[in-house]
Specification:
259 residues, alpha/beta, globular, Rossmann fold, six-stranded mixed beta sheet
Length: 259
């Protein structure tokens, strides 16, 4: 189900501005990879290149390679819509469709991909996705209520249910807990531990403790004073990154002496 992504010498431009420079990394299947670093260092931009979401901004382009189990995501003839089906995304702020019911929210991505479902199949998919997002027991008696009627933490889990309903291989999460309270954050973190059994997960977070708690591997991005674009300083197993990183810049950032 989950897939490996190999990125080599990836550069991301918005027009003439290079936002990300020369990133090379391997993202292992069935793991959580955390991307940390100061604001503006390109980690969210890099995350969006993994499902070609950055392309919605005019003038955006990529040089280098991002390969998912042998498929070059930027290869000729590769459909960005199909890439986004396989590589789902959960954003910083919960964004359920406000006019849609909870069950319609879950099915929105599937319908966008023109999959026709019978009523029993749709009901089964809604239940399976909500169970996968650990939300079913809280909402099963009000599936016809608007998604916007849920609390912030529930809305974020609804967005995760919507993402997994289309059966992606990879889940990208861009600061998924930054708008949530501590209890909702814990629920999402517990959910990540469960989801990585089936998915490859990449999370951008500003929260060092969260990166340490949820991820198997951590990559540290930064931008230096000489005007160099965002780049990957180092990447390693999370325990190593937080106890004995190889670069002083990483140590300074993790210990709070920087950025």
């Amino acid at each position: 189900m989950s897939k490996r992504i190999d990125v080599s010498d990836l550069n991301v431009y918005y027009g003439d501005f290079r936002a990300v420079e020369g990133v090379t990394m391997a993202i292992e299947p069935r793991t959580v990879t955390a991307l940390i670093g100061p604001s503006g260092c390109g980690k969210s931009t890099f995350l969006r290149t993994l499902n070609r979401m950055h392309e919605v901004i005019p003038g955006a382009r990529v040089e280098g390679k991002a390969v998912m189990d042998g498929l070059d995501l930027y290869g000729p003839g590769v459909d960005p819509v199909e890439v986004r089906r396989q590589v789902g995304m959960v954003f910083q702020r919960p964004n359920p469709f406000p006019t849609m019911s909870i069950s319609e929210n879950v099915l929105a991505g599937v319908r966008l991909n023109n999959r026709r479902l019978s009523k029993p199949d749709a009901a089964e998919l809604v239940e399976r996705s909500l169970r996968g997002a650990n939300l079913w027991n809280e909402v099963k008696d009000r599936l016809d209520k608007p998604g916007s009627s849920l609390s912030g933490g529930q809305q974020q889990r609804l967005c995760i249910a919507r993402a997994i309903a289309v059966e992606p291989q990879v889940l990208l999460m861009d600061e998924p807990c930054s708008a949530l309270d501590p209890i909702s954050t814990l629920a999402i973190e517990d959910l990540m531990a469960e989801l990585k059994k089936s998915y490859t997960i990449v999370i951008v977070t500003h929260n060092m403790q969260q990166a340490a708690r949820v991820s198997d591997r951590t990559g540290f991005f930064t931008i230096d004073g000489a005007g160099r674009p965002g780049h990957l300083v180092e990447m390693d197993d999370t325990a190593t990154m937080f106890s004995s990183p190889s670069q002083k810049a990483t140590e300074d950032y993790i210990s709070g002496r920087f950025g």
